[in-house]
Amino acid sequence: MDTLDSPPTPTTLLLSFSQIVIAMETWTVLSICLVSLVGGAYTKDNTWGGLYPRESVSREVRSLDGLWNFRLSPLQDPDKGFREEWYSQPLSKTGSVISMAVPSSYNDVTQDKALRDHIGWAWYDRTFFVPTRWQTDKLRVVLRLGSAHYNSIVYLNGLSLTSHEGGHLPIMAEITSGLVYGRENLITVAINNTLTPETIPQGSITYHDNPTRYPPGYFTQSYNFDFTNYAGLHRTVSIYTTPVTYIDDILVTT
Ligand SMILES: *[C@@H]1O[C@H](CO)[C@@H](O)[C@H](O)[C@H]1NC(C)=O
């Protein structure tokens, strides 16, 4: 049996495997807590993993890697970006931004202690174009973020597109209907690196409400693993096309 090292095109897959299951994407409704943060548009929880996209006769891949705009949420006002709807327009219009390399761990970029030690939401955005040919050819377009550590909410052109919990697996969403073809598209990603006893890896937040020793609202994050809780868009971000009829999943029975 062939390995999947270089994935065959959908046509050859059809010939090689006897059983192909085209599964409907299954989305689960997001917990009320996150929806209340997002406000406005409905966000689907992302449960759809996916293989790394490679160019083929039916798949065109565009990279969204490079320098994105970036801003931290204030430590003492973690929900500011949601309240002020930072996702509804370019981040550079709602405050100061720095350039952030994607993929990278933002903790490692610059010499700023606040960036290295940040706990809470961080915001990324960038603009991109898609060829109008994709619209005339009626191609399906998928967004894939290789990983975002830890919790993330993804917006496209100001609307929430998907959300994801977990820092090490791909986040994927079909974006065909949310794209604009003759103009710039805006993608915004809010990422929260807060660890809890339920996250992998685990961590906890301690609020030090002793005004004689700490500033008001001061909190720290602790964990028992021996590496930094690196955060951010850790892997490649790309968009790719598929035909309208596509393989979502395969099941090989031997
Ligand atoms: C986001 O970060 C804040 C800390 O600034 C934390 O209190 C909150 O629980 C986090 N939310 C999520 C969904 O991770």
TrEMBL record:
<dbReference type="Pfam" id="PF02837">
    <property type="entry name" value="Glyco_hydro_2_N"/>
</dbReference>
<keyword id="KW-0472">Membrane</keyword>
<dbReference type="GO" id="GO:0005615">
    <property type="term" value="C:extracellular space"/>
</dbReference>
<protein>
    <recommendedName>
        <fullName>Glycosyl hydrolases family 2 sugar binding domain-containing protein</fullName>
    </recommendedName>
</protein>
<dbReference type="GO" id="GO:0004566">
    <property type="term" value="F:beta-glucuronidase activity"/>
</dbReference>
<feature type="domain" description="Glycosyl hydrolases family 2 sugar binding">
    <location>
        <begin position="61"/>
        <end position="243"/>
    </location>
</feature>
<feature type="transmembrane region" description="Helical">
    <location>
        <begin position="20"/>
        <end position="42"/>
    </location>
</feature>
<keyword id="KW-0812">Transmembrane</keyword>
<dbReference type="InterPro" id="IPR006104">
    <property type="entry name" value="Glyco_hydro_2_N"/>
</dbReference>
<dbReference type="GO" id="GO:0030246">
    <property type="term" value="F:carbohydrate binding"/>
</dbReference>
<comment type="similarity">
    <text>Belongs to the glycosyl hydrolase 2 family.</text>
</comment>
<dbReference type="GO" id="GO:0005975">
    <property type="term" value="P:carbohydrate metabolic process"/>
</dbReference>
<dbReference type="InterPro" id="IPR008979">
    <property type="entry name" value="Galactose-bd-like_sf"/>
</dbReference>
<keyword id="KW-1133">Transmembrane helix</keyword>
<dbReference type="GO" id="GO:0019391">
    <property type="term" value="P:glucuronoside catabolic process"/>
</dbReference>
